[in-house]
Amino acid sequence: xTRTTPIDLRSDTVTRPDERMTxxxxxxxxxxxxxxxxxxxxxxxxxxxxxxxxxDALWVPSGxxxxxxxLSLHLRxxxxxxxxxxxxxxxxxxxxxxxxxGGMPEPLDWDAGPGRxxxxxxxxxxxxxxxxxxxxDSLLCLENTHNEAGGAVIPPDEHAQLVAAARDxxxxxxxxxARLFNAAVALGVQPxxxxxxxxxxxxxxxxxxxxxxGSAVAGTAEFVTEARRMRKMLGGGVRQGGVIxxxxxxxxxxxxxxxxxxxxxxxxxxxxxxxxxxxxxPRTNMVLATVPxxxxxxxxxxxxxxxxxxxxxxxxxxxHRDVDSGDVDExxxxxxxxx
Length: 339
Prior knowledge:
The protein is an alpha/beta fold. The chain has two domains: about 90 residues, Aspartate Aminotransferase, domain 1 (Alpha-Beta Complex); about 240 residues, Aspartate Aminotransferase, domain 2 (3-Layer(aba) Sandwich), CATH 3.40.640. About 40% of the residues lie in helices and about 15% in strands. Strands 2-8-7-6-5-3-4 form a seven-stranded mixed beta sheet, sandwiched between helices. The protein has a four-stranded antiparallel beta sheet with strand order 9-10-13-12. The longest helix has 17 residues. The radius of gyration is 20 Å and the shape is globular. The chain starts with 6 loop residues before the first strand and ends with a helix. The model has no long low-confidence stretch (mean pLDDT about 95).
């Protein structure tokens, strides 16, 4: 019996470096980044800062570490921080924002649309009682795109309103921009247009951009100096990191390719709808399907040769650089046959 090769739509993290990326990794100039900085790593960090419109940036092994570093430096133990319901820092980082950064999370409802709280809600929830025994609000943590909301985006005007509301109530702002480049491509703006006014931002190089590993956290030069110390504390220092950083530099040159992933997600959503599935209208590269039994649906998909994951009570499909339109059509054919 011939086994069907699975088509993997679990995440955009499953991609493999292409020939151009592996060649850049093999030829990278390297040094000891812990002792006196790796030259290729430093080149990547400066490039990230330039793209994001910040003073400086720091490479980190993962987005989770980048977020944890930012929250640890922004929060005092016992401070309350606000974040939209279902954000990565609340639901997919093992409670590290509370356990390690010492923050008390306050989820915000999506009153402005999927994954998006309104500026009015930020104003009403934060800056409350002045009683000495009340929680002290100090941080707003945003996510763009919003994972559990199916890759929903925050446009620049709403971003500006949220930043203004946070500032008016004395909050600092961290942006989890793991898929910020997807948001920028979807909105037709530069990434820096989506970081205006924030204190820090984290971006991931190993999701849609296709690098094998790595993220970056960015902000002021002073923040990055402290972030480098915190990275060392968390075990995130690397030696000849240029081998990894070279892949990140290549990835940053190919951000417009994300448009293809978005087109493929729309193609997948349209095809699933024709097959009778109830799915969201994707803005970026994620499709969320509402099904009666998530576990049963995932098992049926697996047997049909399609890999997906559970997400917020739904089935999540993610398109990426290793899946083309022909693969999407094959996914639809397999699902149609299984149904």
